Amino acid sequence: MVDLPIHTIVFEILTRLPAKDVGRSKSVCKQWYALLSTQDFVRIHCSRSLVSSNQRVLLIDDLTCSVRPIISNNNDYGPSSIVTFPFHHQNNDVSILSHLNGLLCVCLNHTYELLLWNPTTTAFKRLSTPDSHGFYINNLDAIGLYVDADDDYKVLHIKRRSGVLGVYVYSREVDSWRNIPFITRQEY
């Protein structure tokens, strides 16, 4: 029998844990914190959670939010666990615009603010700035999340104001917005 390095064994076990347990495991030691914070770990952990037995649905209604496991054999939901919103909101105020690897981009409908939110860790980041970046208007804007070649999470925000398109990208690593030059015909 071949001896496997302890790092490989730990990695293989931790990538199969539920996200909440992974979050708790970060406090075990510095090595685990470093391992669990890498993009490779996040990518593999997310791919393993795509197995139907690991699927969950996030339900938002009025002032509550709950996570329920999906029971695949009868297309039903299992028992729910309540998720507390870590940010101030109003009734029917939170709209999910995009998601990637457990991270959500949401809009607070009463202020039009964009937020990045991890419901598992309850961490969130307001993306709105005083110079009007990070404000979302329904039916005029589009939002998408992606990871670039350097493993930086990005928010793509396409805005249409008075017939003019603006394209902006938020970088989680740099914590700022930048304008992307976008040429289009005037009728768009």
Structural write-up:
With 188 residues, this protein is α+β, with helices and mostly antiparallel strands. 18% of the residues lie in helices and 36% in strands. It contains four helices and twelve strands, in the order ααααββββββββββββ. The strands form three sheets. Strands 1, 2, 3 and 4 form a four-stranded antiparallel beta sheet that branches. The chain has a four-stranded antiparallel beta sheet with strand order 5-6-7-8, with no helix packed on it. Strands 9-10-11-12 form a four-stranded antiparallel beta sheet, with no helix packed on it. β1 and β2 form a beta hairpin. The longest helix is centred in the first third of the chain and has 10 residues, at 39-48. The model has no long low-confidence stretch (mean pLDDT 80).
Features:
188 residues, four-stranded antiparallel β-sheet, 4 helices, globular
Number of strands: 12
Number of helices: 4
Strand content: 35-45%
Major sheet details = 4 strands, antiparallel
Unreliable sequence segments: none
Helix content: 10-25%
Rg, Cα atoms, Å: 19 Å
Class by helix and strand content? alpha+beta
Return the average pLDDT rounded to an integer: 80
SSE topology string: HHHHEEEEEEEEEEEE
Query: What is the rounded distance between the termini?
Result: 65 Å
- Oligomer state equals single chain
- Outline type: globular
